[in-house]
Amino acid sequence: MSEQSQVRATQAPDDSGENLEKKIRSLDRILDVPMQVSVELGRTRMPIKEVIQLTQGSVIELSKMVGDHLEIFVNQKLIARGEVVVVNEKFGIRISEILSPQERVERMA
């Protein structure tokens, strides 16, 4: 096999500029679709009796420990984990781990 043939054989068929342009145009169709993003600090279970007794200043113990990663959901599906940061006096989340597509599919089952 000639050197030129080897180069052609290793190139992916979708690498042309035209195919890339088509992919970008099709992606443009969904870029403005709104999605719900939420971050879960922790969870707990409480009987109704305890919930009714909550007042201003009550403390609810959560399942997470200090320093544990927070879970980031998109449309109620876990997609990543992160940690709390402060940005311009507002809370934010620094993403430290993004679940692989395989992990996301496994969690759906």
Describe this structure in words.
It contains four helices and four strands; from the N terminus they run ααβαβββα. It has one domain: Roll (Surface presentation of antigens (SPOA)). Residues 1-11 have low confidence and may be disordered. A hairpin with a 2-residue loop joins strand 2 (70-74) and strand 3. It is α+β, with helices and mostly antiparallel strands and 109 residues long. Helices cover 30% and strands 27% of the residues. The protein is elongated and about 65 Å long. The protein has helices spanning 3-10, 17-28, 48-52, 101-108; strands at 37-40, 70-74, 77-87, 90-98. Strands 1-2-3-4 form a four-stranded antiparallel β-sheet.
Distance between the termini: 47 Å
CATH architecture call: Roll
Q: Within the largest sheet, what's the order of strands?
A: 1-2-3-4
Strands, total number: 4
* Average pLDDT level: 82
Q: How many DSSP helices?
A: 4
Write out the CATH superfamily name.
SpoA-like
**Residues in β-strands, percent:** 25-35%
CATH class reads Mainly Beta
Helix content: 25-40%
Shape descriptor reads elongated
Radius of gyration: 23 Å
Largest sheet: 4 strands, antiparallel
Instruction: Give unreliable regions as ranges.
Output: 1-11
Number of domains: 1
Strand/helix succession? HHEHEEEH
* Overall SS class: alpha+beta
Q: What's the CATH topology label? A: Surface presentation of antigens (SPOA)
